[in-house]
Amino acid sequence: MKKCFLAAFIFLILVVPALSKGSPDSVLRKQIEQIAKPVKGIVGVSIKNIETGDTLSYNGKARLVLHSVMKFPIALTVLHWVDTGKLQLNQMIHIGKRDLTRNTWSPLRDKYPKGGDFPVSELLSYMVSQSDNDACDNLLKTIGGPATVQAYMLQIGIRGIAVRTSEADMASSWELQYTNWCKPVEMTALFDHLYSGKILAKSTTDSLYQMLLSTSTGPKRLKGLLPAGTLVAHKTGSSPTNAEGLSPATNDAGIITLPNGKHLIVSVFVCNSTNDEATREETIARIAKAAYDYYNH
Q: FRET partner for 92 with CA separation of 20 to 30 A, picked from 59, 213, 265, 272?
């Protein structure tokens, strides 16, 4: 009798509160579904609580257009070259005027229209923190092109991210942007690899994390509805919009530090949407806020 009473007591104090709170699949999933349902396009979401291992996926295995989120795996590949001695962070790379692209997003070109010699570390910062397309393509050329990135992704066990073409190539042909894609669950796994220190040395891990924290693009996406000062180490991706109002990619993925000390990886991709930019960005912000509120307990 005492054993039965003890078992019932344990059930009441441990199991019942958990049931009343609900699992991510029954609570947070419903919120995400409600946020994503009105969107004219595909919304892919992958979430992981790093400390607990809790995960949630909503269209997380769909192949969605990557765009400039590809600069995160490119940066990882460059820093892997640094770790293995193929490159040095202070190594200078010459960028001539002909290496700078017109009509593309490039704060580097705007500041140095004639080009110059730049250390790898500075080009990485431009590429990651400011999503600079010229810095990206010149680093990509330095390491041997997209095939090198693809090989490194496979080496570390990431099979759901495809980097097949450069920023300049994507800009030259509407169809080419679709050759760079990822599954949101794989982008979350890649951020998890970075945070855990599994793939880079501590110094290069810390350096890239700081660049991601300094990201200036997409302030209305993952960070849009979070409390001011929330640390978000993230990388955005944005496609052009065609004459029919179709936007193949409005993306943001990264690591959110919660007030309770835990860390949440959130990857949100809004693909092939005909909504306006404000709606696409608000969708990402609302999903991030829902995850933030759910896991901050």
A: 213
Structural contact between residues 96 and 115, judged by C-beta atoms closer than 8 angstroms: yes
- 118-154 in b/e burial notation, b at 16+ Cβ within 10 A? bebbbbbbbbbbbbbbbbbbbbbebbeebebbbebbe
Q: Find out whether 251 and 66 touch, Cβ atoms under 8 Å.
A: yes
In order, the DSSP letters of 215-283 are --S-TTTTTTTSPTT--EEEEEEE----TT--EEEEEEEEEEEPTTS-EEEEEEEEEEE-S-HHHHHHH
**Catalytically active residues, by annotation:** 68, 167
Place of tokens 């110094």: 203
Instruction: Measure Cα distances from 291 to 28, 195, 280 in Å.
Output: 7, 19, 17
Q: What is the pLDDT of residues 87-126, one digit of tens each?
A: 999 999 999 999 999 999 999 999 999 999 999 999 999 9
Give the mean pLDDT of 232-243.
97
Q: Which residue has the higher pLDDT, 185 or 22?
A: 185
CA distance 137 to 183: 23
